[in-house]
Amino acid sequence: MGLVVQKYGGSSVADAEGIKRVAKRIVEAKKNGHQVVVVVSAMGDTTDELIDLAEQVSPMPAGREFDMLLTAGERISMALLAMAIKNLGHEAQSFTGSQAGVITDSVHNKARIIDVTPGRIRTALDEGNIAIVAGFQGVSQDKKDITTLGRGGSDTTAVALAAALDAEVCEIYTDVDGVFTADPRVVKKARKIDWISFEDMLELASSGSKVLLHRCVEYARRYNIPIHVRSSFSGLQGTWVSNEPRGDRTVEQAIISGVAHDTSEAKITVVGVPDKPGEAAAIFRTIADAEINIDMVVQNVSAAATGLTDISFTLPKTEGRKAIDALEKQKAAIGFESLRYDDQIGKISLVGAGMKTNPGVTASFFEALSNAGVNIELISTSEIRISVVTRADDVNEAVRAVHTAFGLDSESAEAVVYGGTGR
Amino acid sequence: MGLVVQKYGGSSVADAEGIKRVAKRIVEAKKNGHQVVVVVSAMGDTTDELIDLAEQVSPMPAGREFDMLLTAGERISMALLAMAIKNLGHEAQSFTGSQAGVITDSVHNKARIIDVTPGRIRTALDEGNIAIVAGFQGVSQDKKDITTLGRGGSDTTAVALAAALDAEVCEIYTDVDGVFTADPRVVKKARKIDWISFEDMLELASSGSKVLLHRCVEYARRYNIPIHVRSSFSGLQGTWVSNEPRGDRTVEQAIISGVAHDTSEAKITVVGVPDKPGEAAAIFRTIADAEINIDMVVQNVSAAATGLTDISFTLPKTEGRKAIDALEKQKAAIGFESLRYDDQIGKISLVGAGMKTNPGVTASFFEALSNAGVNIELISTSEIRISVVTRADDVNEAVRAVHTAFGLDSESAEAVVYGGTGR
């Protein structure tokens, strides 16, 4: 029996009862002969409450102090969890990100892990302890300041520790049963996926699936750490994310892993761009300089008569204002006619490594959307993903139609509570 | 203009408004040309809420994890305070006890400071920052674990930093205007003391005055750091505690500094103790082995006929059960007849260095009590203090009578809100 890293999100430790329930589960793993390292998020709404306080004292809380503030949340949950475990008769020690050796760069509020030196964790484990580690936080290499890892940070902490400690598996406990073939709030017949490859999981994550964040899956793939996403409220097997299909699940490997959707993006169309070299570069350099990440990019065929073309791209709605402002400033330099902003769009993505060798997939996808009366506005593809942009109002219907068309519906409709991952 | 250490208690930073008010005051000190180090406690009831959570998950929270939990409180208040200061256009950085170099022993929940190495604080100050430091917490020298300093810990942090940084003054901001000649909740005519010596302040603190704790004053005396206790809600001068009387206050130096009272103690009488050498030692060794601190000790004159005597002592009510149990176990070995436990007592103490050279003080003290109809049960004296034990019901009346008899009443009766120091 080897070493297991378990990560519990805020909803799993929302109150004293939750903490006691999680403590029991951790002790089970220990009793089964594992060395256990636990990464824990802040309790329930703690982080939101701290952010609210910060906004009351300062309209734009500063990076370093904001991180100092937010990291109090995990300090509370990890200490309580260690106490609850001790109360069950087992030894546990809690460690801050800094004490656990999570070394980051100095970019406050969204630091990146650059090294993990878990010497104190090893010692604690060797002495028979269960080690509880604060998720979401680290210490900067140069200034020794407290940093936070940004969204999905606790999952990343867990995977990074699993890699540094050469763990057998990184178990991500959450409030859903695993990764589903579609969002069960939208598709009642969505099925839990038993196994999915890192690649497909990466595509799902970047297409709107919220169970695991892209960053955490990317880290796990790099170090080849199997992730097991499962519910902290049940004893059920969840979804394994790994390189190699597990056990008898090889036979199940489907052409399509799932359907993801995303309504958090907006579309900007740059109208009347001179159709000559360097124009697209000028537009996207402007966007990049504003530190905005874009998603899909489409350029229409130029109308021969005018020599002008349109370029559309999608980006997070939250960045919309900033992008428009940045482009308007460069309007003369770039030489376009106007900008159109549309935040009533949705994106539907079909993900599956099997589509590489199944030429009919794209056609079936478009047929399913057409039969459901859904109009396609943009198309973008990768080797293992097809994404389309539609009206936001059409998204749910489109997801259900595609899910059914690719035979993903489960026999029995299940009602599943589905939540976000927090941090 | 030199370096000033300011300490703000939990009631001063109880909410966002309080934090903003405190931030303004800090910025004032900075604008006046001082280098400013601020020690801050947890916000209002935060600590109690954390303790409540701990008790929900574990009936006896463990030392190390309990400290990890509680220190989250200061992390929140100090980060918010730094943000609020930045919002006023000044630079501020917050530091945990560990980052500030507060090195302690490993006794969790009541660690003692053994060294202060404020290198990071110095650097922050030299760079023009206001340094905000978490009170009440440190890091253990041997294990590098987070520790807390126990009751009055934030005041002690402030004085220790003031000593290590060679500060001009340590300002303790609280919710009262300073140290009073008696508890203003009991004596409406109590006066604020402008200056008091370390020695008198130590006696007041150990006699029930709660504005400053003994430990903090002792530390300040050892390093000769003047303390200025004052209100965070007003701009008034408070009480200076120092070696040398300040300015024109020398002429004011009174015979008596103040009257303290304490109703938190109980009295144990060991009845029928053989009047021979070693008996008292056996009793107090038993108490010491149980790690109980006692206060007053009185032995009656032996009744010649029986050769038996009674020994009485006072101790915190919270330790009463433990002391009785410890003595009962040793009953046969010590050879006493019975134990009497009385928790309906109160202690009144008169404190003042002047009484050394004023022989009438003791007589006047007893006369005042007698005139008020208060019966004296135990008496204990030091060079600058007289304490008596009375019925708890008589304490308030006794304090008022003594306060008046020694001419401490102010001309005008003031209504003052009087609170504890928290931590």
UniProtKB/TrEMBL annotation, chains A, B:
Residues 268-344, 350-423 form the ACT domain. It holds the Pfam family AA_kinase. Its EC number is 2.7.2.4. Keywords: Amino-acid biosynthesis, ATP-binding, Diaminopimelate biosynthesis, Kinase, Lysine biosynthesis, Nucleotide-binding, Transferase. The keyword Signal does not apply. It catalyses: L-aspartate + ATP = 4-phospho-L-aspartate + ADP. CDD domains: AAK_AKii-LysC-BS, ACT_AK-LysC-DapG-like_2, ACT_AKii-LysC-BS-like_1. One of its GO terms (molecular function) is aspartate kinase activity. Pathway: Amino-acid biosynthesis; L-methionine biosynthesis via de novo pathway; L-homoserine from L-aspartate: step 1/3; Amino-acid biosynthesis; L-lysine biosynthesis via DAP pathway; (S)-tetrahydrodipicolinate from L-aspartate: step 1/4; Amino-acid biosynthesis; L-threonine biosynthesis; L-threonine from L-aspartate: step 1/5. Catalyzes the phosphorylation of the beta-carboxyl group of aspartic acid with ATP to yield 4-phospho-L-aspartate, which is involved in the branched biosynthetic pathway leading to the biosynthesis of amino acids lysine, threonine, isoleucine and methionine. Belongs to the aspartokinase family. NCBIfam families: asp_kin_monofn, asp_kinases, PRK06635.1-1, PRK06635.1-2, PRK06635.1-4. This is Aspartokinase.
